[in-house]
């Protein structure tokens, strides 16, 4: 006889309860209002806003996006309304939804990160901050801030001092050792880790002999990156750094979300698939509930990190291949 | 969906049975379309609505240019299409106080055929000239539908196989003074009309095309350089723009 369970999707992280463990990812959900009428915004686990900088930014020239096999490349250029534009024009709508609001932010210079975090502190309706550390560090030859452990630790520490809000650091996957980077973020004071941001990529128009994006390189997202994301979530979770992981990369179904929970994520974010299906974030949560019921789990937490595998088979493990 | 209708060359009509909210749409508005294929290509395609039929169906005019349009072309009756729309701002409604020249390039005919049909329904067919251009005669689809509207027609092909030989702009002689231009087609054609309209001070409405992932201003992919601010967006500010607003 099949056991019947009543599923409660509530997830707990960063000292908060989240209606579901499924959030809409930054850069794929605007400031929330864009999706009004297309999905039930009040039913989402949370909304992560478009990344904000202290002052508005106009973004990159065209072409900014192109489709790639099972994914897309983007180089939007961090276009955003700026902190003041957000607080006045966007936050009141978000606050009224009764949905968790995570504000993604970045700086154009090292010092601007802490400035941005401070500007976002102390406003009702913001539940957490998410740091985008994939911006180019001009002083380091354009290398992403999030690719050097010591730079990242100092950058996170500067923001940690600037805000009382829980601080999530969104890791770039464009590194050799994701665990060293994750550890540096936690050492700097991160309360949570978002794994992963987009994968650096390029697409070429052979007939025109030109790159398809104006900025030549862009960030790859969508189902194409899911295996990379799951490997990195698993690696970071296995390091037991003591902070919750927001897993993301190519999620489009409830079963995809379950896979990320098994890999060790406490919550997940749906990104690119919001473009394909504006109801995707809510639908993934509904499908996750059905999946949990099917496998006899009452709560999403019952799946977190419950991957069954033989760690001796991991590469670079003593005794492994 | 009901199926597809081949129109010669690589052009075809995608006919959907129940177009839902598209019923009330106006010429120039568009929808994001995707078949229910499992994975690749993942993004929906932005398509102008060509016709809303009595009974709630709608037609989209397409040309196979890549993987996405090939999948649409291969669809069969009973296959499902997800539709998000109508989206964006339309062309100005036909008006007895204006004389309109509609300029269509290839399958850019879609919203302008609808516009011509609207003009005809309003008894304003004699206020409208439609100029349809293509590379070859094969690109000049739906000629019977165009003739049925009663608007004045001009044709142009680059190889001279139908109408005036040359680009569509070569077929505009003698009809531009005092006219309002409305255009949809390949970007080089729209660029040429943009320059022409600004030079001659003609009112001109261009339906622009830019790669977009969402259609609702979330992806910010479809930015267009604009006069008064850095960018406008094809999805929500357009797709129909006044020529002087864009491409400064």
Structure summary:
The complex is a heterodimer of chains A (321) and B (248). Chain A has 321 residues and is α/β, with parallel strands linked by helices.
In words, what does this structure look like?
The complex is a heterodimer of chains A (321) and B (248). Chain A has 321 residues and is α/β, with parallel strands linked by helices. In chain A, 27% of the residues lie in helices and 20% in strands. Chain A contains 9 helices and 18 strands. Chain A has helices at 82-89, 91-95, 110-119, 149-160, 178-187, 226-238, 254-263, 273-276, 280-294; strands spanning 11-13, 16-18, 22-24, 46-48, 65-68, 71-74, 101-105, 128-132, 136-137, 143-144, 167-171, 192-195, 199-202, 204-205, 210-211, 217-221, 245-248, 267-270. In chain A, the strands form 5 sheets. Chain A has an 8-stranded parallel beta barrel with strand order 3-4-7-8-11-12-17-18, surrounded by 6 helices. In chain A, strand 9 and strand 10 (143-144) form a beta hairpin. In chain A, helix 3 (110-119) packs parallel to helix 4, helix 4 packs parallel to helix 5 (178-187) and helix 7 (254-263) packs across helix 9 (280-294). Chain A is globular. In chain A, 52% of the residues are buried. Chain B is globular and about 50 Å long. By secondary structure, chain B is an alpha/beta fold. Helix content of chain B is 17%, strand content 30%. The longest helix of chain B has 14 residues, at 187-200. Chain B starts with a strand and ends in a 6-residue tail after the last strand. Chain B has helices at residues 67-73, 109-121, 143-149, 187-200, and strands spanning 3-6, 11-16, 30-35, 45-48, 51-52, 58-63, 81-87, 100-105, 128-134, 152-157, 164-165, 180-184, 204-207, 223-225, 231-233, 240-242. In chain B, the strands form 4 sheets. Chain B has a 7-stranded mixed beta sheet with strand order 11-10-9-8-12-13-16, sandwiched between helices. Chain B has 4 helices and 16 strands. The A-B interface holds A 28-30, 34-35, 38, 58-59, 61-67, 69-72, 74, 76, 79, 222-223, 272-278 and B 34, 39-44, 68, 82, 84, 210-214, 216-221, 223-225, 229-231.
């Amino acid at each position: 006889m099949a056991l019947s369970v009543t599923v409660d999707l509530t997830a707990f992280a960063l000292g908060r309860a989240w209606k579901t463990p499924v959030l809409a990812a930054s850069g794929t959900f605007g400031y929330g209002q864009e999706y009004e009428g297309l999905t039930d915004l009040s039913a989402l686990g949370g909304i992560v806003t478009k990344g904000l900088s202290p002052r508005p930014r106009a973004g990159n020239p065209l072409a900014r996006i192109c489709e790639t096999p099972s994914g897309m490349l983007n180089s939007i250029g961090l276009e955003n309304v700026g902190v003041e534009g957000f607080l006045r024009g966007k936050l009141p709508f978000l606050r009224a939804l009764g949905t968790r609001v995570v504000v993604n932010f970045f700086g154009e210079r090292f010092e601007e990160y802490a400035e941005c975090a401070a500007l976002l502190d102390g406003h009702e309706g913001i539940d957490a901050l998410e740091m985008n550390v994939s911006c180019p560090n001009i002083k380091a030859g354009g290398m992403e801030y999030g690719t050097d452990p010591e730079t990242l630790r100092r950058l996170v520490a500067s923001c940690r001092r600037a805000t009382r809000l829980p601080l999530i650091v969104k890791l770039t996957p464009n590194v050799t050792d994701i665990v060293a980077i994750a550890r540096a973020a936690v050492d700097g004071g991160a309360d949570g880790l978002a794994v992963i941001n987009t994968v650096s990529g390029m697409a070429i128009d052979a007939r025109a002999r030109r790159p398809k994006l104006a900025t030549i390189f862009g960030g790859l997202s969508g189902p194409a990156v899911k295996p990379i994301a799951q490997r990195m979530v698993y690696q970071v979770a296995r390091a037991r750094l003591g902070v919750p992981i927001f897993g993301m990369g190519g999620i489009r179904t409830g079963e995809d979300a379950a896979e990320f929970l098994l890999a060790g994520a406490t919550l997940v974010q749906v990104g690119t698939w919001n473009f394909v299906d504006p109801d995707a974030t809510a639908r993934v949560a509904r499908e996750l509930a059905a999946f949990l019921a099917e496998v006899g789990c009452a709560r999403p937490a019952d799946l977190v990190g419950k991957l069954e595998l033989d760690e001796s088979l991991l590469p670079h493990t003593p005794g492994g291949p | 969906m009901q199926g597809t209708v081949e129109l010669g060359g690589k052009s075809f009509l995608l006919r959907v049975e129940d177009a839902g909210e598209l019923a009330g749409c106006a010429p120039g508005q568009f929808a994001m379309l995707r078949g229910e294929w499992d994975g690749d290509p993942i993004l929906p395609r932005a398509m102008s609505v060509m016709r809303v039929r009595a009974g709630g169906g709608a037609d989209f005019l397409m040309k196979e240019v890549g993987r996405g349009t090939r999948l649409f072309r291969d669809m069969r009756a009973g296959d499902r299409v997800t539709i998000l729309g109508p989206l964006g701002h339309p062309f100005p409604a036909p008006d007895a106080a204006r004389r309109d020249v509609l300029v269509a390039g290839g399958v850019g005919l879609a919203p302008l055929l609808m516009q011509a049909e609207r003009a005809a329904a309003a008894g304003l067919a004699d206020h409208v000239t439609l100029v349809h251009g293509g590379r070859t005669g094969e690109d000049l689809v739906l000629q019977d539908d165009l003739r049925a509207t009663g608007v004045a027609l001009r044709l142009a092909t680059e190889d001279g196989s139908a109408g005036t030989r040359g680009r569509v702009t070569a077929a505009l002689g003698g009809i531009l003074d005092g006219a309002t231009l409305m255009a949809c087609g390949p970007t080089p054609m729209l660029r040429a009309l943009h320059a022409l309209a600004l030079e001659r001070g003609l009112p001109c409405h261009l339906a622009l095309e830019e790669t977009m992932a969402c259609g609702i201003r979330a992806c910010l992919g479809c930015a267009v350089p604009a006069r008064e601010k850095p960018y406008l967006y094809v999805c929500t500010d357009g797709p129909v723009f006044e020529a002087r607003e864009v491409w400064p």
